[in-house]
Structures are given as C-alpha cells and as structure tokens.
Amino acid sequence: MNPFAPRTYGSLERVTDRVYIFRNIVNSAVIMGDDAIAVVDTQVNEALAKRLIQAIASLPDHCHKPIRYAINTHYHWDHTGGNYVFKRIGAEIISSAQTKAFIEERTPRQKAFLLSRGFELGRDPYQADRTLAEPGDLDLGNQRLHLQQLGSAETDDALTIHVPQEGCVMAGDTVMTGSFPIFGQPVMNEGLMGTSVWLETLARVEALEPDHILPGHGPVAYEAELDLLKRLQRYFLDEVTARVERGLSLPALLDDLEAQLPDWITSIPVTWGTPRYAILRVYRGLMEDEELGWQHVKPSAIPAADAAAAEAACAPLTAWSEFRAVASELEEGGDLGTAIAVARRATEVLASEPATWVWLADLLMRGSRQVTSVLEKGDFFVEAQQALHYALTLAPEDVNAHAALGQFMIMRAYRNGDDPAEGMAHLQRAVDAITTPAWGPQRATLAQAHFYIGMGHRTNGDESLAHACFEAALATLPGFAPALLAQQA
C-alpha cells in the first residue's frame, strides 16, 4: 500500500434502495424519502462534512431533494464535527436532550484529551436545533424514522434511528465493526464500565429485528459482527473482574491477562481501540477513583528506558553531536526507550539549543510507528509537539523546527481529511528561509518541505499543485523516495 497515495476521504455505499452508508474514519448514514433526505452523524470536521454533501449530491436518486435533518447519535467529536456545515445548507440539527447537555458539559475535557493525542478539533460543535427527550418520529415523505434511546453503550446518550421500511437501524457507536472497538472515551466514565448494560442495549437493538445495522465505525453489521462484539464484551468483563477479585494490582493484571489473550482477540485489526484499552475500561469501572476515565492510569506507549543503561550512556556526554550519536546507535540497535531517554537528557543539558528539541521530536515521531492505535501514538505525538513548539520559542525562525512541525501537521491532515493550511504555512517558512541552491542537510530539509507541501495540496484534492511540489522535491534531491512514491500513485 502506497502511504502517499491520493485518498478519497469517504465513499457512499448502497445498503438498500433508499439507504446509504458513507464509510470514512467515522460512518454517516444517508436516508432518502420521497420529499427529503436525512443524514445520521455529520462527520469528523467541516471539510469531511462538505465531502459527504458532495457525495450525496452525486447520487442519481438525489433529485435535488433537500437535506432536511442532520441527526447526532451521540456527543463525540467525530459524529458532530460537521454540524455547522449541515446547518448552513438548511438542515435541522437533531439530537437527544442528553447529547446536547453532554456537548455543553464534556466538550472542554474531550478537546483537551484529543489535543494531547495530536488532534486539533477546531470550534465546538453546533448544538441541536431540536432535542428529543422521548422517542419520536421524523418523516421524509413515505419514509419514517423512529428515534429512541435504547440504553447506555459506548456513551450514555446513545441514540438509535430505526428505519422500518428499509429494515435498517443506525446504531452509532453502540455497534462498531471492522477493527477492535474502543469501549468508551479514555477520559470519561462511560462505556464498558464493568457492567452488562451495553450488552442489554445490544439486545434491545436486536429486538428491532433489522436486516442491516449501520455501525458508527466499520462495515455494515450482521449477526456475525454482533456476535463478535458481544463475545468481546463478555470476555473482558469476565476476565478483568476475576483478576480484580483476586486482588491483582493493575500492572500485574495487565501482565497476566495480556499474556493470555486468545488468537481470536489478538487477530482483530487495531485502529483506535486495543485489547489493553478494553482491560483498562473495565478495570476503571470496577474501581473507585475521583479522576474520570482511565487515561491517567494507562502505562505510556513510549517504551521505558533501562535507567542504569541510560545513566551510563549519558554520563560522559557534553556535546550535542555526542548525544545524537549515542541515541542513534541505541535506536538502530532496537533500544528505543533508552534512545529517547538519551535525547531527553540532551534537552536538559543543552536546553537552549533548538536542535536538541527537534531531534527529540523526530525520534518520537519515528517511534510512534511502532504502535498501531491512533490514540496510543498520541503518547509520542504530544511530547514531540511540545518539543517542537519549545524549539520555536528558542528560535522562532528555526528551519528544522518549522519543517518538522509542518510535516507532522500535514500528515495528520492527510490521514484525517483535515485542513492542511497551518502545516503548509510552517513548511513554506522553512522553504523561504533556505538559501538555494541548498547543500548538505539543508538540501534534504528543502526536499522534504517541498514534498510535504505537495501532500497538503493532495489532501485538498489539487493533484496539479501536488505534482509540481513533488517535482520540486526531486529537483532538489534526485531520487527522494517519498516523492517518487507519491508520483506513482
């Protein structure tokens, strides 16, 4: 798979004659009536909401019908980020009363957590124009939607949309398929909190006898997908509870249970949730703790250093070149934890030198590739971002800091369909500061900056400008592998 290929950021798939699923980082559902259209969940951000609207407009059965309703299944950012866009085209935003309250109460904590994972959420979601405290119906013209809260699931405000004429249920994150589920936001007390409440909610969803269940994430769910979700929940409820009752500490519990996870669990792909997160979620639900969620008890994904080895490695070092050489050797030898410890020590000894902070950030970014969960990568991302921002406080025009920060922002935008403008601005500052023709390390930095500006244009869908930047990267550094890959796509 080419890591720099153009991305579509979602595609509409037909589920029934009048229901579609928009598959992306998060799913949206599109329901057609004779008179109007409803959308369930408005995407992660405004850029992706616009892409969803464009996709709807391309449908042959769209027939210029208005999007009358945009419904939020729950308060989470990835399901409400496009509310403003749908409001601007005249849709009525609808949620449960509980969702509206949660957006008001929980958004600051949610945003702070996601910022720590490397996600910039932008402005708070547009709040619902109409809220439902009781089950209610919406009419699209010969197409009835029944909205009701069937019980707590990933969140306590979970809303289900039943479209009986189509045999469809839009379940939001009550149902997740295709990768390991995330059983509740890490900084909230919600989800699989050591009880069977979510399983009971799933039973109520099944009681509607739908032919198709459209999940919040992943492919359309049928019996096999529901059975796997329920089996996962029962497994972690039983196994974590048993170890808590035996009095195991959290580190001992993690070591014991993770060593015994069966293949049917470890073979599930990981994107957001992980088996460790499931353990922490259930554990946190069984324990008294004033702090919300389980993020504060989660072991860092950054490998621990051998303290004695790190101290011995750092003791004789005084110059930046010495620290870098030792850290590089440790990284190449597979000891990432000690390499990071040496790089951190360099920022203590040589705190006023921007290069030490940029090197630490680069090392952390490379280290993040060792983990698959987007949220686990955040342990690396947050420290790397802090290091780069600090480098820029020391030297606001530092070329390498602008280039590294811009690269990070561009690839985040490319993965998520975000606006790449801020990252492109950092990269352009790096380009403008490098005297051409560039030589030595600056030549590679200039090639990288041109390339990642091109990836910003690719994220925006402008392939002509993207390829011009890839050519500029190759003119600067012939054979630059990322640019060659990007051109092949």
Automatic annotation (TrEMBL):
Organism: Candidatus Entotheonella gemina
Any single biological process term in GO: antibiotic catabolic process
Taxonomic lineage: Bacteria, Pseudomonadati, Nitrospinota/Tectimicrobiota group, Candidatus Tectimicrobiota, Candidatus Entotheonellia
Family statement drawn from the similarity comment of this UniProt entry: Belongs to the metallo-beta-lactamase superfamily. Class-B beta-lactamase family.
Metallo-beta-lactamase domain span: 25-217
Matching CDD domains: metallo-hydrolase-like_MBL-fold (cd16282)
Name the UniProt record assigns to this protein: Metallo-beta-lactamase domain-containing protein
Gene3D superfamilies: Ribonuclease Z/Hydroxyacylglutathione hydrolase-like (3.60.15.10), Tetratricopeptide repeat domain (1.25.40.10)
InterPro entries the UniProt entry points to: Metallo-B-lactamas, NDM-1-like, RibonucZ/Hydroxyglut_hydro, TPR-like_helical_dom_sf
SUPFAM superfamilies assigned: Metallo-hydrolase/oxidoreductase, TPR-like
Domain of life: Bacteria
